[in-house]
Each structure stands twice: as C-alpha cells, then as structure tokens.
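Example (one chain per record):
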Amino acid sequence: MYGVYLRQLTFEVEEAEDGREALAKAISRRPAVLVTETRLPGIGGVELCQLLRADAMTRSIAIVVVTADAVSTSAELAQAAGADGVLFKPCLPDQLAGEIGRVMAASPAAGRGSLRRAHVRGDTRQPPSPPPDLYCPVCEEPLRYVVSHVGGVSERNSEQWDYFDCAGCRGTFEYRHRTRKLRTSPVSMPSLSRFGT
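Predicted structure:
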C-alpha cells in the first residue's frame, strides 16, 4: 500500500522481502531514504538501523521506522539505533510521505538524491520517450494511448509512465519505461479523463 502511494507521488520505490535484502539493497543502491518495520525476518528493523549507521557508505541514509509496537520503548530503541523518524501503526500513506519529506529536509545528504521536486514533473501527451505500441494482456486488442506521466527524483533520474486503455475489455494499463513492464493501472481513469477518451 505504501509503495503504490509513494510511486503515485513519483518516488522511485525499491522493496525488500526481509531485513537482509533491505541491507543489501541499501549498501548497493544507497537510497536517499529507507523505510523499515521493526519486525522483519532475518535482520530486524532496529538492527538494520544499527548496521546502516555503523557503515560509512550508508550512515547518511535517512531512516524512517514504522512499528506496530505502540509502546514508547520501541520508538526509543529505534531512535537509539539511528532512526531519523518513527511512526506507529496504523499509519496512513500520506503520514509516511510527510515523514519522509521531513527527514529528507533535515538530512545532511538532502542535496544528494533528494526527493525534493527539482525538475519538471507531471502529465503530458508529449513525453520525452514515445509510448510503445502495446496490446491488451487480457483480450489482445491494441491499447489506446491516453497520457504519460513524467516523474522521478531528478532530471538525471527521471521516470516515465504511459497510461493506456482498452476498448475491448475496458481495462486501464500502465507501462513503465525503466522496467519495460505493462501492468493494470493503479490510477483511476476519472483522474485521466481530462485528457479525453
């Protein structure tokens, strides 16, 4: 749920199945911010914070911990381990996005890989890369291009998503240029209706 919401805000999101994978991705990709649970298989969220803060390559990554343990000791342990922010569940996606913005603004590495909106983003019918000719994975009819969304964390690391609809099955689809994958669109068509049908 958080990943879908953050992607709609044009954040580039990488997900991990457990703490070990999160640690490996943090070391290899050095994201601007890492969001973790306290209870993860393999390496827990508190230990993950400690490991990231102990390594010179990863200590500047901003860390937000989300926990279901609604006791102050969980927050204290996470902050002592190096977390920049702690949120308690239930935590709405917009609360998480706000906390990410807060820790990024306070981060000493805010200029590097920042999630601030420094380049032009938005919907367009004249995207940097032309949309491909695609066919519906449900009924195999040609898909009709509707609009593109250009986003990403910077001009150098821009992202492009193309949105399509299908006259045959009336489905809506999203094509992401970076991964070259077509999937059912999480964006509702009413939000795209201003571009015509």
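Caption: DSSP finds six helices and eight strands in the chain.
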